[in-house]
Amino acid sequence: MQVRCAAGSLWITHDGDCKDVVLGAQETYSAERKQAMHLFALEPCVPELEFRDD
Description:
It holds the Pfam family DUF2917. The protein has strands spanning about 1-5, 10-15, 20-25, 25-30, 35-40, 45-50. It has one domain. It is mainly beta. It has no helices and six strands. The chain is about 0% helix and about 50% strand.
């Protein structure tokens, strides 16, 4: 899965992983894990999600 923050800021965390990710506007994160991923808006934001068939 790929997450892009088109505007604002976004906090991403995965179950069982202590490493969190914070995205600002126009930044992208590619998740390689199968664990549940949680997205939280740190301010009003526009998240874009892309699902892959890997």
